[in-house]
Structure formats: structure tokens, C-alpha cells
Amino acid sequence: MNSERKTRVLIAKPGLDGHDRGARVVAYGLRDAGFEVIYTGLRQTPEQIATAAVQEDVDVIGLSVLSGAHLALTRKVIEKLREQDAAEIPLLVGGLIPEADKAALKEMGVAEVFTAGTPISSIASFIKSRVANA
Amino acid sequence: MKETHDDIERIAKAEEQWRQEVLGPRVKRFNLEKSPTRFYTPTAEPDFDFLKQVGFPGQYPFTAGNQPFDFWRAYAEAGARMGMRPESGGGGAAGRYSGYGTAEDYRDYLLRMQSLGNRGGPNVAFDLVTQCGYDSDSPFAAGEVGRVGVAVDSFRDFEVIYEAFTGDHDIDKVPSNFTINAPAAVIIAMYVALADKRGIPLEKLRGTPQNDILKEFIARGTYIYPPRPSMRLFRDTLVFCRRHLPKLNVNSIGGYHIREAGATRIQDLAFSLANGCAYLQTGVDAGLDIDDFAPMFTFNAFGGSMEIYHEIAFQRAARRMWARLVKERFGAKDPHGMMIRQPITAHVGCTSTTLQRPLNNLARAVVGGIAAGMCGGLPAAYPPFDEPLGLGHSLEAIQLQMDATRILIFEAKVADVVDPWAGSYFMESLTDETEAAAQAELDKIDGMGGAVAAIENGYMPRAVAKSAYERQKRLENQEEFVVGVNCFNRDNEIDVSVQRVVDELYNPLQMATAEERQLVKLALLRRERNGKAVARALAALEVHAKDEDANLMPDLIECVKSEATLQEICDVLRGVFGEAEPVKI
Question: Smallest Cα–Cα separation from B266: which of B443, B419, B428?
């Protein structure tokens, strides 16, 4: 990991879902684990998320979705990242994701899917391994 | 009383001796710092006053329960002999919470449920697009239409849902529940417009709109306008309902959402009561008589957890606190307004369920059912075990959940005694502790200026997020345990998986195509309706929205009847009221 600059993580809530317990808890946890965390707040469009990721020059993006709209919203975020030449930023998805949809998300290009019960330490280690390899 | 105090002194002495001779050596023998258990004696409640602290079920302060027995208990055995299913409603209640796809999909689902014997009114889940005051063709709607509930863009959609409710199921016979908050006034306007169109007098309409906007800012997130104009809309619904819809409950105040979002038990209680007081004060400030409107408030359950003793104490404390607030702070005389009317009492809360070995959630739900049965409620084992899978509740999981409730009622006979913990040294002291801690938190919020101020300054939403993180840290440090999640999750456990074999309740193909079909309908609506009438109604709404003293319900009813869309209506109000700023962490 680059020692001059902390790894930057964007935690984002795409769509209209207001269930942000997970997003906030992960944001707090990653901050305590030494990351620089930017939390978008609720109701972000895929375009806003991609723009924030580029402007803030983040190393990784975490999307949190509990509304069942994860496939459509993640696809859109990836599209918008591509449009802004930022498709290389690793994308993580968390929330209420049915088992069967995990493969579909990974096929789209999602680096990893974290569902309920995941310790924040696992998310932190995953990010460290991924960003170090990048 | 003197004798009792002598008794307590004697017991206190004996207790001290027991500590030294029995407990202490045992703690030492196992090399512990302190005892992992507690034992309660009369010294926990030296000044216990039964009539003041507990009283009788159905009497102030309602600690022991709202009633000596509830409606469901009166006919439980008769229902068992007849094979009644609780969700069948019997016309007395709204049915199971449901909603998905387009209004047509949902109507057909409701008709299918009726063909299976359901007789209750609709208990409508709206999609997030509707809950946030957007139309299905808004850029914010993509991917969300018909997803967590039914899509309602206009009165047309609302009418289609109610095609399932005619004749014996017409809206003068069955009640309706609407889980809607920020646009609650618009949905109530649709209900009124429907009654007008069907020639049904408004005083016959029954039901419950959730209409609890304050907790949206603290927990659930489907707010539109800033808190103060949101409360003005609440006032307008309250005043209008009391004048024209006397049988419609005004709101359903939810602590459940606040706890699920991470609040502690004490925060849940204090924040919910603070919100409740803000709504009561709104009615008083509007010139209504507290005894006229407080009885029309309902609660949508406080939050729950697996800590069974604490949850029982919590419900007892909540009933007593609300009763005292309504009586002492607001000067009510009618005891009906002092009761916490809620369909669910203690429960484990959906956040207690785990994705890991999900069948364990049935065991968890049973714990909640026991807690409910022991605190004055229906011993409902909730939720169905497949709750955390994100696939919707399967019919078989619902069957097991209902059976668990029945086993608690009929086999375990949990509900044969009201408030079985009344007078328990332990439970009375835990109830008092819960009340005192919640009262201190409530005083703090009052000191800030009440619930609205404690939302505007970010206190309540931030406190909830912090508590959620504290809990997560305790789990990661194994200071708290969740079976199969942060303990008993190694390779030596068997990963019990479940198969869901009964068909889904909601047709997945309809879910997948709902957005597309809804967009076609919306485009048609925009072409077919009278644009001038829409513009006129919206213009009148805007004029009156700027006048704080005006009640917007008549304008909203006109807007709805003109077939203005939900977003067009909400956009007019956004223009006047502004939009809520999300809370920063």
C-alpha cells in the first residue's frame, strides 16, 4: 500500500433505499481500520456515484443495496464508471443479496459481494489485498 | 408498610450473608471476576407500589396490559375448532402486509388471496418510488418500480388495486393499511377520492396510514421535505381526518424502524415517545381536543431483540410511560388515548435473524413469541425464517411461523395469564430501570426542543448510527454472540440449508417486467387526462401550500381527482417546502 496516502473508499447508497445501517457501520468500521472513507448519503444516482468516485480519486467503491434493485443499479453504476474511464476501480456490493444473484454480480465485474454477518475486518482485508495488487 | 420495611432489612442482611458465604466462594472457585448470573430479592424494589407501578390490565397506567384479554384471545379456541387462519382477517382487520409490481399485478394477487379465503382489507406496501414521491418515469425510479411494493403513480393505479375490494369487501366494510409516510396525505386523498367515486360516506372509512414521517429522518430514509413542513402535512391529515374520517386511525408510530436501524432499546423507546409527543403537540397546537385525537394514534410496534427479559420489561415500561405522558403532560382524560395500540408487542426484530443456517430463525422467532405472550400481546413468532434470504417470505416459512404461534397459544398456553411477571422483583426493577433510562433520554430530547429539533440538529439519526456501530464492534470482539455468525461457525458445524419448495407469493416474471408495463400506463395517462384540469388543481395546491394556515387536504383531493401524478403533486410541494438534506455521518 502507498504509505503517503491512505486508501480511499467510497461507500454509496444507490437508488431510493433508505436502509443505511450497513453502509454507515461499514463506513465507521473502515475509517477505524485506517481507511479514508467517503459516504455519499442516501439516494444517489449511478451517475452521481461514478462522478464522486472519479472526483474523490477513490481506490475502491462499496455499494449498499437492500431493496432488491441491486442488479439493475450495479449494472448502471458500472456503465457510468466505464463512461468516465474509471472501470478499473474495484467495486464491492453489500446488502440483502440473494445467493443466486452473487454470481450475476461478479459476472458484471463486481470484485466481491458481502452479505449480512460479514465482519468489517474481512472487508478491510479484502480491500487491502485488492488495492495492494492493483 | 413498616412491617414490610423490616422484612426488607432482614432480607438485605440475609442477602449480604448469601453473597459472602455462597456466591463469593463460587465466583472464586471458577476464577471469575464477577458472577455471570444475577438473583433478585425484594431489596430490588424496596418501595414497590403495586397499584401505582402495575395496576390492573385495562386500567391506567396499563403496565399489565391494555386489556384483561384481547379480541383474538376471546375467540382463540373457537377459531382453532373452526380452523381459522389469522390472516383471513374476517373483515375486522387488514390482511397481511403485501404489494408488488403494477396495480394490476397486485390486484390479481389480492384476488388470488381472497380465493384462498382471505377476507381482510388491503395492507399496502408501496414501492420506493412511490414512497419517495416520484413517478415511475423519473430518473430516480430506474430499477425500483414495483420492487418492494406496488407502484402507484396516480389515482388510476390506486383504483385498480381496489378492484379487488367490492361488494362484501367494499371499503365501507374492510379497513385499509397504507405503509406510506412522506406522501401519506396524497394517499389519504386517493382513499377519499375513491370513496367519493363509489358513493361511500367518508365516515365509514376505516384503516391506518403509517403517516409517521419523523422516524423516516431517524431511520427509514423515505423523507421528501424538511421536518417542519413535513409536520405541517401531518397536521393537515390529522385535522382533516378528525373532521371527516372519524374511524380512520391517524398514524402508526414506529419504534421498530429506529431499533432495526441500530438504536439501543433505550433510544428506541425515548425517540419513539419523543416523536409521539411531537405528533400530539401538533394536534394540540392545531386546536384539537387531546381526548378527541389521541385515541386515534396507533403504534407499529417498537423494536425488538433476542434479549427476552429486557423486551418484556421494555413493553411494560413503554405502556406506562406513554400513559403517563398522555395523561400528565397533555392532560387527557379518556383512557383510550393513553394506551399504546399496536398489532405487535415484543418480538425479536428482523435484524436478529441470520443468513447463516436460516432455519435457526424459527427458534429465534419463537423466543420473540414467548416474550410477546408474556408482555400482553399475541405470542406471534415473527418473522418467517426465510426473512434474511432476500427472496420474500415463502408460504411454507409463513406456515411454520403461524404454527409456532399456535403452539405457543394452544400447547404451551403462554397467553393464559396476563402480565405473568407482574410483581416479580426482577421484572419490576428491570421495568423501572428501562423507564428511568428512557426518561433521561427523553428529557435530553425535550431539552433540545423536542423530536423535530433533535432531528434537525442530527442528534437522533447520528445516535442511531453510532449505536449500530457499537453493536457491530461488540460482535466482532465477541462481547456479544450470535450463533452461526460470530461463534459456532467453524468447520465442525453442519451447514443446514433449506429448500423452499412452495411457489413464490409474488410472480417473479411480473416483478421483472413491472417497470416496463408501468411506463406504458403512465405515458397513456399523461396523454388521456385533461391537462388543463391537472394544471388548475396543481396551481391551487401551490397557492395554499404557501399559506401555513391552510389545510392542504381539499387541494390534494382535487389534484388526485384530476389525475395529477404523485410526483407532480409532490414536486409542487417540493417547490414550496424545499427538500430534506440527508444527515451526514
Answer: B443
Q: Which of B125, B131, B127 is nearest to B224 (CA)?
A: B131
What is the domain partition of chain A in residue ranges? 8-133
Q: Are B455 and B226 in contact (CB under 8 A)?
A: no
Contact B237, B197 (CB under 8 A): no
Chain A residues with beta carbon closer than 8 angstroms to that of B465 = 20-21, 24-25, 28
Asked if B262's CB is within 8 angstroms of A21's CB, the reply is: yes
Name the residue ranges covered by the structural domains of chain B: 2-39
Helix (H) or strand (E) holding B158: helix B155-161
Angle (CA) A101 A105 A107, round 5°: 115
Chosen from B260, B479, B585 to mutate, greatest number of chain A CBs within 10 A: B585
Q: Enter the CATH code of domain A8-133.
A: 3.40.50.280
The pLDDT tens digits of the residues spanning B428-474 come to 999 999 999 999 999 999 999 999 999 999 999 999 999 999 999 99
* 3-state SS string for B386-449: CHHHCCCCCHHHHHHHHHHHHHHHHHCCHHHCCCCCCCCHHHHHHHHHHHHHHHHHHHHHHHHC
ipTM of the complex: 0.92
User: According to DSSP H, which parts of A40-94 are helical?
Assistant: 46-55, 70-83
Contact A21/B at CB under 8 A? yes
**How far is the C-alpha of B149 from the C-alpha of B177, rounded, in Å?**
13
